């Protein structure tokens, strides 16, 4: 997989997680981010795996909408 394809897959995952966060579905967003982290680890992309891990922590701390 070339860099362009990886970037496109990562972008899709972040957009999908963002949609769930916007709807207040924190658990589903965290699941999607974990899938992204797993993908990055499989592809040997440690910097993106760390970025996904950081986003998982941030999403888990996000306040729930009222």
Word description of this protein:
The protein has helices at 3-22, 26-42, 46-61. The chain is an all-alpha fold. It has one domain (3-61). The longest helix is centred in the N-terminal third of the chain and has 20 residues, at 3-22. The mean pLDDT is 92.
Keywords:
single chain; 66 residues; mainly alpha; 3 helices
Instruction: Give average pLDDT, whole number.
Output: 92
Report the span from N to C terminus: 42 Å
The helix-strand sequence is: HHH
**Shape annotation:** globular
Overall structural class, as computed from helix and strand content, comes to mainly alpha
Short description:
By secondary structure, this protein is mainly alpha-helical. Helix content is about 80%, strand content about 0%.
How are the SSEs placed, and which strands pair?
Elements: H1 3-22, H2 26-42, H3 46-61
Helix pairs in contact: 1-2, 2-3
